[in-house]
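Form 7-S
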Amino acid sequence: MKQSAETCIFYIALESQLAGILQETSYSDPSLSAEGFIHFCSSSQVDAVVEAFYPNQQDLKLLVVDVSLLRSELLFEAPSGSLPDDFPKQQLFPHLYGPLNIDAVIDVVDLKCFNHKPVHPDTAAVLRHYRFTRLPVEGTLFKSTWRGAPTSVEQGPSGTAMIGLYANEPESLSCFHKLDYDEIWHVYGGDPFTLYLFYADGRTEEITMGLDIMQGQHVQYVIPAGVWQAGCLNEGGRYALFGCTMAPGFTGSCFEAGLACELLEQYPDKAAVINKMSVNGGHKTMPKGFAD
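Output:
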């Protein structure tokens, strides 16, 4: 038995459980009554637990839990009970001896997007501070900071602003999409990231965003309406903090995601980045009513 040396631990949940868990102030898994603790995983243990206890289960979610915010005692202990022969019984697993206070959850990740890397303390601190949510379809970590008043009954807000975070762990990026209005990107801090732009005439651009202006990085960039765009943290980076401003403002109805099969037809020489950044699972539009 030992105290935690992890910045974040992970709780595996079915998608159908998620809303019920997150709407509570604290959550008591059934294992708390049966065994006296709640089971968690470190980043390297998620696969083994999923294979042992959630075989063939689709749509699993990972609650990313900041250890520094836990109110119940957390101990790392050897697993017990009936376990598969190939389960890593020699490893110590995080056990929470009391309910999970939900304000310790700093992100929720789709299992299929999980990259099995531990969350760095610097990234956890930013997540803890801003309390981002995940943008539907894209999966980007974002926080809406301003929505201007509607210019008429029929129209959306006069303008909008948001703060976003790209990260390697937990992974956050923007899949290919286009918008009906120009979008202004701003760099606030962290490491460089790249915006991939595909134009209707077949041209493509890669714009490096960052604070090193003497090396050609941009602290601000305007993406014209109708241009396919995607973005992610550059290799070796930890996180990038950025902002986006639009006027007229963002609504779900002004967004269209790009599917890999469609983008590859027009930009066949960009197959690598298209396959990497088309991660929307086939959905092209935002959920009905989102940000409208």
